[in-house]
Amino acid sequence: MFVAYDNNGSMINVAENKWSKERLKKIRQQVNFYCPVCSNQVELKIGSVIKAHFAHKKSTSCLLKSEAESEYHMRGKLELYEWLQTQSSIDDVQLEPYLSRIKQRPDILFKKGEKRNVIEYQCSVIEPSILLKRSLKYKEQNIINFWIAGAKTLKRTGSYAFQLSSFQWLFARKTKLSEPPAIIAYSPDLKAFIILHTIIPFSPRSIIGNHQTYPTHSISFHELFTQYNHKARIMPAWINKIRRFRMKTIGYKSKDAASFNHFLYQTRQLPLSYLPSLAFLPLNSTYLIESPVYVWQGWILIYIDLLPIKCAFTFRDIYHYFAEKVTDGTISIRSLPFIDVHYSFAIKDYLLNLCHFSFLKQTQKNVFIKERSITWTTRVEELLISDNKVMNKFR
């Protein structure tokens, strides 16, 4: 940590530019320092690699000492603090303030207009319950909280492909209902933000998305949270993802995928990889559901496939059918603490897109008619051609 009290109860922030190494070494010989949270004595460490900071003695315990700070985390936090101080729309930037009322010490606290805001820079995995608890406490105090990931935690697997853990998904944010979410990360090595946006998940961990890098001097706080939707750029990668799924022998499957695969073998004598192209639509709302895209969309197609041509059904019919599968664990919903959108939005989005492909017809606001049947095939070549046609039309 960078902040501590001295013998006189004055707050010392060793991250401030006024502290030279020589001055800190001198004051360390004359003054004792104490943790703002637990009041235990702390040591002032002055290294050649890591910037000067305070650390608890090994024998002491502190309410907020659970996470050991890495050099990467300390550098990033300090750079974010310095960056915020350059923002004309932001005032009263504080590094590591202790909020005694809620017993929290955010990395950075600042004011934007009349609103108090905090930034938590998270470079390691913590229990989701801890993140949720902290966020709730900030919300109770009308403090807006932003969680920024350490960029080194992002795992890129292709030009537009990434692996996201369930913990990283907790960082997802969005500004518009109709757009996919984004995750903001920061790299102290690059001194730049990395924004992973237009996130379209294919499976619980595998996503197709776009990313952009912004050096701190080139982006404002407001611009940092502006959405960037460039779906056209990622469509070739999405098509390739489907192709690889169809051509590659499926190994380990999640519980929901295994259940659906078993159902397809029993009822259609087909594996998941032979699902029709309409089970792979890259909707902006796909992020709301954790199950693979082909699982939750596939179950909806199965429901519709069992209906006769020209049969009418309602959105409520599909929703109840879907909700039952969520309840019994056949379909999983993603936990997104910073996005207040119900998964039913994805269901409605999917039905409307099926209308776009003339598979359904909407006659009233929430009433649909089945226009044609699903074509099931065991010919991979036909499926691949269909994938290209559907996805090109989807753009």
From TrEMBL:
Residue span, Competence protein CoiA-like N-terminal domain: 17-63
Occurrences of domain Competence protein CoiA nuclease-like (ranges): 69-227
Competence protein CoiA C-terminal domain span: 237-384
InterPro entries, alphabetized: CoiA-like_N, CoiA_C, CoiA_nuc, Competence-induced_CoiA
Any one Pfam family match given in the protein's UniProt record, by short name: CoiA_N
Protein known as: Competence protein CoiA
